[in-house]
Amino acid sequence: MQSKKDGDRADLRTIYGGLTSVPYTFLTGVLLDDEGSIITYDWDRTQEAWRKIEGPDDGAQFHVDGVEAIEGAPEVVLATAFSYPIQDDELATTFNFPRIRLTLDGISSDGHWSQQKQNRLAQEFLEVVKNLAGKGVKRLHLVLAAPNSVVFTFGRRYDKRNLPEIVVYQYERGEPVAYPWGVSMPVAGRDEAKVVYVR
Fold it and tell me: Where is the SMODS-associated and fused to various effectors domain (predicted)?
């Protein structure tokens, strides 16, 4: 990172590919932000190889539910289903906040190979978050079922200064608490990331 700081952004190119947990992937995106040109790769399970995110945008959009029912709640759960459904009973093991759902048309674990699509959906996500902030939401609890590259892109696009605090959670299937830990992101005036545990 030091060599990046010492160079001209126009002369730098970052290659990203990862298989980390959702909270740490989102955090990586937040930390890299818009630092120069970033080329993103993801693991293609079918081809068993790393693949560049560069395909065409299929136009799929998020359906948004629950925004009108939050009634001024300061904290909400934002369940964003990109590649797999997010179950209400599993959310209930962890959260007791109003829920907003973003559900992608034709949920698919293989529909993310377009950077244009990822950027567009990240912007749709941000518009929902801005709407929630306008309704008085101060803290988001984000549950995100998405491929690694999508999580990374969403983290890059999250506005560090003007959006609410956000905690991004890890899913543990079959556990009594389905989302047992998360990372509170260094945004909204917070200088450092912090791991939080659900008790």
Answer: 7-185
